[in-house]
Each structure stands twice: as structure tokens, then as C-alpha cells.
Amino acid sequence: ERKVLLYHYFLFCFQQFLELLKSMTSSSVVDKPPVRRVAVFGGTHGNELSGVFLVKHWQENGAEIQRTGMEVKPFLTNPRAVKKCTRYIDCDLNRVFDPDNLGRTVVEDIPYEVRRAQEINHIFGPKGSDDAYDLIFDLHNTTANMGGTLILENSRDDFTIQMFHYIKNTLAPEHCPVLLIEHPSLKYATTRSVAKHPVGVEVGPQPHGVLRADILDKMRKIVKHGLDFVQLFNAGR
Predict the structure, then answer these.
(1) What are the φ/ψ torsions at residue 6 (nearest 5 degrees)?
(2) Which of the listed residues 73, 81, 209, 235 has the most CB atoms within 10 Å of its CB?
(3) Closest by alpha carbon to 77, among 40, 126, 122?
(4) Which pLDDT band holds residue 91 (cuts at 50, 70, 90)?
(5) Is residue 1 part of a domain?
(6) Where in the cell is it found (predicted)?
(7) Mean pLDDT of 65-85
(8) Number of neighbours of residue 99 by Cβ within 10 angstroms
(9) Tens digits of residue pLDDT in 214-225
């Protein structure tokens, strides 16, 4: 009797193991809507010039960033700060896309960046709605020696994670780290957070108010590969 019980127990454990193994090795297709509306933001900080230069270039000649079946819109987010070549005018544009500021009553003394955030939310949002843009690349420079870094805001954003994987593989062996800024007690209300899939692109080292050709080229490649991925994704590939 003891042998029979041991046999059945072993059989039960083996079956559980097989089920676990199956769940670990199986895959499934998840149906997700195509990504049709994409924006490329430059000048969120007006003295970070790689994104400013690329957006201005693509506004004049956008053939490089257009893809079949997609609308790709290059957009200068903080034109006053760009004109003065300063990070911002009244407050950091990359911190004010929270419900309080986006719903703030427009009065004469409202900070310029808050008013600009509301304008951007009107064009590319509303934030958190079905009408919001599918994807925004927000282009930044840093004085830190980070190389080309991708910034992820949501660890459950499967689409963006797959895009980052594609970009990293395409750039290899060039290093391309991913920085996750998700935190339970930090609400980082970025400009790009208007979109369903926000993507930060941070490239350095580059002094503020300066352009470096190698940094510009690295940023350009990241955006190109990201757009290539979207086209492949939309085609079911």
C-alpha cells in the first residue's frame, strides 16, 4: 500500500512538473492594435540641441521618418526655451503633465510651460484617452556619459519593451542601456506621457547648447530603428 501511495504521489508531482514546464516554454499570440500615430518631440529642454536639430530637419524634410501606414509628426515642444537656448522659461516642461497642471485654469500669470503642456495635451492627447497618440519619442541630451539610453516608464508596456529589444539588437554591438523610471511613489509627469506608449531617448555626453555629430547620429539611428520596428509590428512581423 505504501508503494502504491508513493507511486501515485510521484506521478502527481511529475504531472505538475510537466504542466509547469509547459507554461514556461509555451507562447501565445496577443492581438494588439496597430500603431498609426507617432510623434517625435525635440526641445522639451531648449538647450538640448540634438533633438531640436533633428525635429527642425524633419519638419523641412520628413521623408526619412515616414513609414507606410503611419503618420509621423516631428514637433518642437518648447519653442521659447529653444529660442533662448535655455532648459525652460518658467518651469520644467518635462514635469508638468500631471492632472492638476493639465486641468489648471488658464490665467494671465500661468507659467508658460504649464500653458504649453495644455496645448501639447490638446494636440497629442488627451492624456490617458483612446484619442491620444499611440507613440511619442521624446529626444533629450545629457552631459553624462550614458551613450544612447532608452527610457521606459512602465514595466508592463509589452509593446515598448519589444521595441527596445529590437533597437538594442539592431544597434549591437554598440551599447544601448534601458533605464526604467517606474516607481510606486514617484509620479514623473513627462511630456511624452501624453502618449499610450511614451519613449524617452537620452543621448550623451554632450554639453548643453552644443551639437556633437556623433551624438546626433546616435540619436538619429535610435529613432530610425524604433520607426522600423513599428512598421514591422503593424505588418504582423
Answers:
(1) -65, -40
(2) 81
(3) 40
(4) very high
(5) no
(6) Cytoplasm
(7) 97
(8) 11
(9) 999 999 999 999
Task: Write out the three cell numbers for 127.
Answer: 492624456
CATH number at residue 91: 3.40.630.10
Q: How long, in residues, is the chain?
A: 237
Does some domain include residue 61?
yes
Contacts of 14 (CB under 8 A, 6+ apart): none
Strand order in the sheet with 197-204: 71-76, 37-42, 135-141, 197-204, 147-152, 178-180
Is residue 202 annotated as a catalytic residue, yes or no?
yes
Give the pLDDT band of residue 106 (cuts 50, 70, 90): confident
> How many structural domains are present in the chain?
1
Is residue 28 situated within a structural domain?
A: no
Q: Are 190 and 198 a contacting pair, CB within 8 Å?
A: yes
Return the pLDDT at 186: 74
C-alpha cell at 78: 518648447
Residue 25 has pLDDT above 90, yes or no: no
Amino acid (1-letter code) at residue 96: V
Question: Exactly one of 48, 113, 153, 202 is catalytic; which is it?
Answer: 202
Q: What range defines the domain where residue 224 resides?
A: 38-235
The answer to whether the pTM exceeds 0.70 is yes
- For the residues 27-41, what does the mean pLDDT come to? 83
- Quote the CA–CA distance of 109 and 25 in Å, as a whole number: 59
Asked if residue 198 belongs to a domain, the reply is: yes
